[in-house]
């Protein structure tokens, strides 16, 4: 019994200790001129859905939830955001070549069609980020039109 108490005490001290290890925050007050929403004429309904469903992980400005201050959750979020931005960063959209933009749009289409995006782990907590079938179709049609305008 004595050993169990020591293990619990060590785990508690470690848990409290890791709370003081800071993480980077992906927040910026500036919307760059290269941002996807500024470069493309995005209809308001699609714009708002992309901001809620995609921009937290795929832009330079994350709207953090209340639990982002707790470790190890903050580490998980930080890593997840870095991975998302490495794959696609809407804040740097216009710095991509037309060929790269078309490739990214094809990837967006594929991942939305196969329900890979937004991630189920994200929509589990952020229910407003889920796409209804109508929203999904609207977004897909618009993204396909955008892709066609870039490739033609």
Topology record:
Layout: H1 2-18, H2 36-39, H3 44-53, H4 73-87, H5 98-113, H6 120-125, H7 133-151
Helix pairs in contact: 5-7
Task: Explain the overall architecture.
This protein has 152 residues and is mainly alpha-helical. The chain has one domain (25-151). The chain has 7 helices and no strands. It starts with a helix and ends with a helix. The model has no long low-confidence stretch (mean pLDDT 87).
Task: Give a quick precis of the structure.
Helices cover 57% and strands 0% of the residues.
Amount of beta strand:
under 5%
Share of residues in helices: 55-70%
pLDDT < 50 stretches: none
What's the overall geometry? elongated
- N-C termini distance: 73 Å
Whole-number radius of gyration?
Answer: 19 Å
Number of strands: 0
Main β sheet profile: none
Task: Specify the structural class.
Answer: mainly alpha
The average pLDDT is: 87
| Multimeric state | single chain
Count of DSSP-assigned helices: 7
Secondary-structure element sequence? HHHHHHH
How many distinct domains?
1
Which terms would index this structure?
152 residues; mainly alpha; 7 helices; 57% helix; elongated
